[in-house]
Amino acid sequence: MFLEQDIQQGYVPFPESRARQYREQGCWQSQTHFQMLADLALRYTDRIAAIQDDKQLSYQQLYRLAIHYGSYLKQKGVRETDFVLLQSPNVIEVFIVIFGLYAIGARPVFCLHGHGSYEIENIARQSRAVGMIKLCASDNEPTASEICDAFSVPNFNLWFRDTLISQHSLEASLPQLKQVVSESDLQAQSTAEDIAFLQLSGGTTGLPKLIPRTHADYIYSIKKSVEVTGLNPETKQLVVLPVMHNFCMSSPGFLGVFYAGGTVILSRVLHPRICFELIEKYKIQQVSLVPAIATLWLNSESLTDYDLSSLAVVQVGGAKLLPSLAEQIIKIFNVKLQQVYGMAEGLVNFTHLDDTDQITIQTQGKKLSHLDEIRITDHDGQALPNNAIGHIQTRGPYTINGYYNLAEINRRSFTEDGFYKTGDIGYLDDELNIVVTGREKEQINRSGEKITPSEVEEFILQHPRIKDVCVIGVRDESLGERIKAIIIPKTEHHEINLKNIRHFLMSKNISHFKIPDEIEIVADFKYTHVGKVNRKELG
Ligand code: AMP
Ligand code: DBH
């Protein structure tokens, strides 16, 4: 059932007893991603699947072009089950490349657009990919060849480095094929329970880890995400986060929109004015954001210049959304907020569209599948009751059982009974909504007192002159760690200093040990490639 080469590379499949349950309960079906597209092309034919600038693709066109591109790759020597690194900005051609790879049973490794040759080399080595496809938004970007020239990895074939410049028209950027190809010419044998692709763990520390997802598990999570987000053929969703990131690929992401027969509008940039223009022009109803982009948009001067009234739902995930920001999103955009807590490793939680504002603002919602198992444990791995804060662990029908080719890390990241240790801290409330309070490594230990940064941040944000804040622990000789607040003021003339911040917080009656020992004023934070605040880099 599993590919021998994957098992040899340290792929950890689902244990058979659980796999049987997921099949019997109808979670896992027999469809691969390419078969899913074939079905969509039949059902939604001329409806528009995706738009970017002046380019658009109907479902039928996407399907035909994917077959052409797959055939081109095959001629170039890419074989079934090969891993191929893929890097792309938010351009429409990326959909053709992804489904072109699927059409021949090859497997993309989704690198983020921001990854440089240092990360790419590591990913190439770990995955044993045979080559790289890179789409560029301009002639100034390094090509696949230039990136790959910077390193040498055994088996990383020199025969396949392809760069598509997507500024040219869609036709011109695609290989010109003389013969007509059909689905049957491609003959991919892959089955739904094989690895479909490798995602990367975003991680704010260290190099990305490879996450093997199967067609069956991923399509199941997409289908459930579509249900909970209410997507339908009329849906127009703006995709502004990097397309390769798991959040905007599947929760519900562009794949969710395709699954529902709706239309994805891609934005190459996250600039508020450009995104607002797209929302107005296409009457976009949904968008998925990380908190930092939500903040950027809310503080934009162009906010009132555009008609954003079509916007009905804003999904926010990827990092802790502070309740005060959640409230502003609801009020200022006049939308239903949907919090999404997920990870490329699998588990996804959503607040529901009919939840009360209280639940939507204060929690990260409910698990996607009734077969997701979530447990909160103490430091020794003992399960804790509801409302007790602890380590979040999970297993289920779409959560991996191990990283690809990383046996050592797997021993640390998974429990003996197959739960993934998320590294997140939080609790389940009485209605089983999950609340994420932070990351294990973020927690500050100041003379033995444990401080959750998000709690202190929430207080500091109440200060009228502060736009954003990030609280971290820094090493301290006598305290172990001291608390540092890194602050972005609303204006240049802010008069913010440690003394008045301390004074402000004392007036809120918070415990004195939670009050920052140090502040730093900055113009902006450092972010990861997907726009999460990079706490490690801030220290
Ligand atoms: P990644 O490695 O990029 O897949 O990131 C997954 C991690 O992002 C999770 O384990 C959490 O630490 C964090 N995360 C994702 N969504 C949320 C959320 N809504 N609230 C808090 N943290 C989140
Ligand atoms: O941060 C994430 O990785 C993430 C957030 C929300 C994710 O992978 C997801 C939803 O699926």
What does this structure look like?
It is a single chain. The protein has 539 residues and is α/β, with parallel strands linked by helices. It has a domain at 451-538: ANL, C-terminal domain (GMP Synthetase, Chain A, domain 3, 2-Layer Sandwich). Helices cover 32% and strands 24% of the residues. It is built from 20 helices and 24 strands. A nine-stranded mixed sheet has the order 2-1-10-9-11-12-13-14-15, sandwiched between helices. Strands 4-3-5-6 form a four-stranded parallel sheet, with helices on both faces. Strands 16-17-18-19 form a four-stranded antiparallel sheet. Strand 18 (420-428) and strand 19 (434-439) form a beta hairpin. It starts with a helix and ends with a helix. The model has no long low-confidence stretch (mean pLDDT 90). It binds adenosine monophosphate and 2,3-dihydroxy-benzoic acid. The site of 2,3-dihydroxy-benzoic acid has 12 residues, from helix 11 and strand 13. InterPro entries: AMP-bd_C, AMP-bd_C_sf, AMP-binding_CS, AMP-dep_synth/lig_dom, ANL_N_sf. It comes from Acinetobacter rudis CIP 110305. GO terms for molecular function: medium-chain fatty acid-CoA ligase activity. Keywords: Ligase.
